[in-house]
Description:
Layout: H1 2-22, E1 26-27, E2 41-43, E3 48-52, E4 69-73, E5 79-80, E6 95-99, E7 105-106, E8 119-121, E9 129-130, E10 143-145, H2 156-163, E11 170-172, E12 192-194, H3 205-210, E13 220-222, E14 228-229, H4 235-243, E15 256-258, H5 287-313, H6 315-344, H7 346-353
Signal peptide: 1-32
Domain LRRCT: 226-278
Protein name: Trophoblast glycoprotein-like
Amino acid sequence: MARRQARAAGSGRWLPWLGFALLPLAVPPAAAPGGCPSACYCVATPELVQCRYERLEEPPKELPATVHNLSIAGSNLSVLHRAAFAAHPLPDLRLLRLRHDNIQTIEDMALQGLSSLHTLDLSYNPLLSVAAGAFAGAPLLRTLQLNQALLAAPLEEQLALALRNLSLRRLELAGNALWALPAALLPAGLEELDLRNNSLQRLTTTELQSLEAPGLRGLRLTLGANPLSCDCALRPFLAWLRATVSRVSDARNLHCAGPPPLRGTAVLRLRPEGLMCAATEGGEPGRLETASYVFFGIVLALIGIVFLMVLYLNRRGIKRWLHNLREACRDQMEGYHYRYEQDADPRRTSTVGTPGL
């Protein structure tokens, strides 16, 4: 018992020192430079402000002037108005994370005053409208995250206008049910594109050609968790993937979702000649299979036409042959009929039955 008390007393002496050691990391709202919003908490090194699930309807106004990273999650911002973060200058803000905030509309110059912003995360918001100048207030924006943010409405044209004057280096579009490569959203100079967990069955020849444009030759893709259809239409993508495997960071983890015989097979292990043109699940029949059926039908039609022509050209000989066949059958039947009459004659039967007469 005495040993336990001594041990507890020894550990108790360290608690005040431990508290002083952790004190610089947790700054209360009143101690943060420029003040910390009451609905958020601030961390001093590096300067971080997090506002989680406070149901804010607009970005907090009283933010520390030296904040580097700002995260607002689980609120109801709904609309990012013009100069939404310009109540106080935030010259050092580099990362702005706005996840699960029910953002539906982003107005022109919504990021006005964020001259150092490098990364913007708008993932998991039901975006409905994005103004052409939505990101104009952030000239240094290099990373834009829009994961599961394009499900509520088709925004490709609006986003293309909003991104045209930016120098993005990374664009994340995971989980948006995309059926095709969003070529309009790929500005020149883009280095990384995340397309995981979409509805891509393949990249078409046209889409592959767009990736070879002068400003996109260094673009690296991430394509995991897409339902790749491993039929004959995949051959152009398979050839491109093997030739430029370094451009797809998860190339070795890509697997077939169909057809059933190839489900789960690694794409890089496929052989082009082994990709059949059977109808894909929920898709269109393969082009080569359709062409084969058409060709087969044409061949059968030609054979039928040739057969009819032969019959027509030999109609007299066929008629003569049918006449002779009929006469031969008639003679044969008459012979059978004559024998039947002879066998059925009662006089001949009685004569055969009484040989002594």
